[in-house]
Write a structure and sequence with these properties.
CATH architecture: Up-down Bundle
CATH topology: Glycerol uptake facilitator protein
Oligomer: single chain
CATH class: Mainly Alpha
Number of helices: 9
Mean pLDDT: 91
Distance between the termini: 12 Å
Length: 244
């Protein structure tokens, strides 16, 4: 990256992060609503629909936006990339702001498709030690997947990350949110995808702890890649070619 890349907030990257996160939430929330409506009360079928759609959508979105912003779409991924020195620290807050704004936009997009109000306060209770532990494990696994694959087989990272999320829907008690922006935005949907606002802090703290642990452990297991080995350390085997 050039010096200007480190000191400016390139518009294309922020738009990519916001748009990517919006589409991610539209997929996650929209498929949850669709699955719930079509499953006839069968929670397993509804979860299967939600997990497959979310995983497929995530692969496509990483491939779509990876070459622009790194396709983080997740504040803990951004913070981990800053910690690994793959992303300038000055971009952390703009990235996170774009992700959070995009996440809320994605909820509104999903609601619009299913005739729901743009936003509605969630009433679905999700709290307790088991769920917090699940979120820590899920986020640890997601960051472990991203770091290890990005430093050894970067071309498979989109698929590996999405597959881990699909698995996380099923092996964690929390159904693997693993994303603070997604968690916060899901407090604005009073559907089966929602989480009460009061329960959000426990999830987010667990996600931050899991991400920090994974970054420390897998940063040690896989020594830092040479500069320019990947785009923001995640998705594509080339550094940003042009400045905004």
């Amino acid at each position: 990256m050039t010096h200007s890349d480190h000191t400016l907030f390139p518009a294309r990257r922020l738009v990519a992060e916001g748009l990517g996160t919006a589409l991610l939430l539209a997929v996650v929330v929209g498929s949850a609503i669709m699955g719930d409506r079509l499953a006839g009360g069968n929670a397993a079928i509804a979860l299967l629909v939600n997990s497959i759609a979310s995983g497929c959508g995530l692969v496509v979105l990483i491939l779509m936006f990876g070459g622009v912003s790194g396709a983080h779409m997740n504040p803990v991924v951004t913070l981990s990339e800053v910690w690994q020195r793959n992303l300038p620290a000055a971009l952390a807050l703009p990235y996170v702001a774009a992700q959070v704004a995009g996440a809320f936009a994605g909820v509104a997009i999903a609601h619009g498709m299913f005739g729901e109000p743009a936003f509605a306060a969630a009433t679905h209770a999700r709290t307790g030690a088991a769920l917090w532990w699940s979120e820590g494990v899920a986020t640890f696994g997601l960051l472990a997947t991203i770091i290890s694959c990005a430093r050894t087989r970067p071309n498979v990272t989109p698929y590996a990350a999405a597959l881990f999320i699909v698995a996380g829907y099923w092996f964690t008690a929390s159904s693997s949110f693993a994303n603070p922006a997604l968690t916060l935005a899901r407090a604005a949907t009073d559907t089966c995808a929602g989480i009460r606002l009061a329960d959000v802090p426990g999830y987010v703290l667990a996600q931050l702890a899991g991400a920090a642990a994974a970054t420390f452990v897998f940063g040690w297991l896989y020594p830092r890649a040479p500069a320019g080995a990947t785009v923001a350390g995640t998705a594509a085997p080339a550094e940003f070619a042009t400045a905004d």
